[in-house]
User: What shape does this take?
Amino acid sequence: MYNAGLIGISGSLKLMRIEMEMAGISAKSLAGAMMLTKAAVLGTAAAAMTLLSALNTVFLVIGTIVTAATILDSIFGTASKEISEFSDASSRAEEA
Assistant: This one.
């Protein structure tokens, strides 16, 4: 099987048919048809794995950015200050 990522699945299947004919294997025979089917399935799976690998990298970058933003928000955020002010105000309201 040729590199379907570089020349495409159809291009690699065309080259495989040419080599099969040079080797004397007919694409119309059962063995030839099964060989081409296996090659098409493997080429499609390889293309899917390439896509998923690229998406994995993209999601890794997005996750890193979200994590960094969350950490910066927790460091520079005023939520803890506001919570302590609310706690103090509610304790003063209970005393009154």
Observations:
- The chain has one domain: 4-95.
- The CA atoms of residues 4 and 46 lie 8 Å apart.
